[in-house]
Amino acid sequence: MANTAGGAAGPPGPRWLDDDERAAWLANSAIMISLPAALDARMQRESQITFFEYMVLSVLSEQPGRTLGMSELAGRTAASLSRLSHVVGRLEKRGLLTRSRVQGPGRRTRTTLTDAGYDLVVAAAPGHVAAVREYLIDHLEPADLKALARIGTAVEGAVAGSRDEAGAAAPGRPDPPADR
C-alpha cells in the first residue's frame, strides 16, 4: 500500500511502504521464506538433518571444547530456548550431542558436540556450502555480497535490540542465571 497523507486530524496512521520499499520488502520476504525451506529440504535429503539442526551442530563445532551454554547457543542460532531445547533433545537422542548441568545457582545447561555429531557436521558441510553457493552466493556480484553483509548485520542488530528489550538472550551474551 502506498503512502497517503490524510487530511483529517487524529492519531498518525501507519507509515506505509512506498513502491521501492515494498519491492525490496517483498524480495527479501521471498528470500526469508524460500531460502531456509530449500536449504532444509536439501540438508534432510543429503544429510538426514534439518537446516536448523545443521546450524546448531555447526556452531558447536567451532567452539572451544565444542561446548556452549544453551542461552549462548540460542543467541548464536537466533532461536528461542524452547525451540532449541526441543532440537537439542532430538540431537541428544541421536547421540550427536550431550547436555550437562552447570554447577551453581540457577538452571544452567551446557551443550557439547559428540564425536559422532562432529563427524556428521563435517560430512554435511560440503553439501551445505554447495547449496548456499547454488541458491545465493553465485547469483550475486561482489558489491551485492558487501551490501548483503551490511544489510544482514543491520537487520540482526535491530532484531537483537528488540530481543534485548524483551529480555531475551542476545548473541554472544553469557548465560543468565535462569538458563535452561
Question: Can you put this structure into words, describing what you see?
Answer:
The radius of gyration is 20 Å and the shape is globular. Strands 1-3-2 form a three-stranded antiparallel sheet. The longest helix is centred in the first third of the chain and has 29 residues, at 19-47. Helices cover 59% and strands 7% of the residues. With 180 residues, it is mostly helical. Strand 2 (97-101) and strand 3 form a beta hairpin.
Quick description:
The protein has 180 residues and is mainly alpha-helical. 59% of the residues lie in helices and 7% in strands.
Structural class: mainly alpha
Percentage of β-strand residues: 5-15%
Shape: globular
Order of strands across the widest beta sheet?
1-3-2
* Low-pLDDT segments: 168-180
Task: Please give the radius of gyration in angstroms.
Answer: 20 Å
For the largest beta-sheet, the strand count, sense and barrel status come to: 3 strands, antiparallel
* Number of E-state strands: 3
Average of pLDDT: 87
Intertermini distance:
43 Å
